[in-house]
């Protein structure tokens, strides 16, 4: 049992350590706090899990987040549209950009690293062009409630994250689509020979990742009450880190949504804990890097 | 494929020719001034304000601008300055992205005898440039700290949110804050951390601080983006009344927040004044008129009482 759950074990260790060092850590309001803070990273990480299980990678998520955020914000000025409009616009943008990624990767057989690296700068550029470089401000209260509001006692970002997790688990582990995703990651040729329409699955996976990045953009922009074209820079690395810590391999074929959630939690707990302890930001960088590598090391060791 | 290759070559040739022609054209029509402007990062709202001011002033004075954005990379800034000199611009306006890293750009301009005006941010060798236009960042730190000390009546715990570690504005604003707080032993900095000028990062940081058991009476953020992030967290925790937040820059969102009482104050840095003056000085240098070497544009404290007059400027 322990072998399969190495990463969960590592997470528990981290939580116990933090709880001992900082009494404020386990306070319910701080737990909600951590969940709210990892929602953005976590939502994107669910999409990235699908991408990485098929053996791909999506470097464009941070830029898609920014593009979706500015598009959403531009439709969210008070008294213009109902809240659902900016959200749908953002999701459409993310879906579209992800779809283009998928088409190029699946049809033109280009390396996902290159295609999404290109899209990373293209989407960032589009966000800058769309806004003329300026942040989009003056958003309606309704829109700001997405990031700041509560529903049935939980912050809305946390709720959205939970829904995405449930959806992710369902699609990855309980549907034919999910089985195809694993099959492609394990051996794409074999999957193809046994009748899986691999191109279609690959395209859908990248479209999903784009759409979830856009959702994260909606959450983040409403949380900070502005959509800025410079948002989300470097987020792709945090997202990939969460997925890798969670036990998904870079080579594909192996992974789970549960692991990814733990990965996102480990990063979130670390950020929160280091702030609670007022560790200097220079040291935070070092500690974060070490913990990421340690967590994965522990996982590999127990999995052997 | 056989057809595409020659077409591509032809297009490339055409492109080269166009560039050459454009180059010649620039050499010929020298009836007006050409200024090369290298911006630190046009993804910052403040830099965009500088650009707006420079553009409108240049238009007014019939000056041609060549504008390049170094996107926070000092090495790009150096090659941009080299390119300006190759273009044969009359004056360079340098808005440095790095105190140390952008210094070679000034050296190159001095060596090639092209006048250079340093704008907004200090570089280590700015004495070599013809002029510096900007605001003294330490002053903003001093104003912020003094205001907080007076709000706290000389006693309390302050949280400081820093900008990007090592950025010249971060270094100098910190120095200004510390200089003032040293004089008041009963005012202490209990926590300080960088949020990299970023609103979302400051929001997270403040939430975490609020969860910790530390007593925080007031927050000084080194720019408005971060002050807005912090005030969002404070508002969510229902502590808006007891925990004043101050920012620096007076961007639109912050002015609104000051007006609504969500932020205690911000500090106005006059981007349009700086941009305008830089262009004027560049023109004077060419006309061989005397210019002051250091041109400080003062910061101003903006509180709820005087916020209206700054909002009108927008």
Account of the protein in words:
The complex is a heterodimer of chains A (304) and B (314). In chain A, 74% of the residues lie in helices and 1% in strands. Chain A is built from 13 helices and two strands; from the N terminus they run ααααααββααααααα. A two-stranded antiparallel sheet of chain A has the order 1-2. In chain A, strand 1 (150-151) and strand 2 (154-155) form a beta hairpin. In chain A, 53% of the residues are buried. Chain B has helices at 4-28, 45-60, 74-87, 103-111, 137-151, 168-181, 199-211, 224-236, 252-259, 271-286, 307-312, and strands at 34-39, 64-69, 91-94, 116-120, 131-134, 156-162, 187-194, 218-221, 245-246, 265-268, 294-296, 300-303. Chains A and B meet through helix 2 and helix 12 of A and strand 7, helix 7 and helix 8 of B.
Rg result of chain B: 23 Å
What is the strand tally of chain A?
Answer: 2
Distance between the termini of chain B: 55 Å
- Using only C-alpha atoms, the radius of gyration of chain A works out to 19 Å
Beta content of chain B: 15-25%
Please tally the β strands of chain B and state the result: 12
**Largest β sheet strand count, sense and barrel closure of chain A:** 2 strands, antiparallel
Shape descriptor of chain B reads elongated
Mean pLDDT of chain B: 87
Low-confidence spans of chain B:
23-29
Distance between the termini of chain A: 12 Å
| Major sheet: arrangement of strands of chain A | 1-2
**Biggest pleated-sheet summary of chain B:** 6 strands, parallel
Roughly what percent helix of chain A? over 70%
Q: Helices and strands of chain B, in N-to-C order?
A: HEHEHEHEEHEHEHEHEHEHEEH
Q: Average the pLDDT over all residues of chain A and give the rounded result.
A: 90
Bulk shape of chain A? globular
Structural class of chain A: mainly alpha
Number of helices of chain B: 11
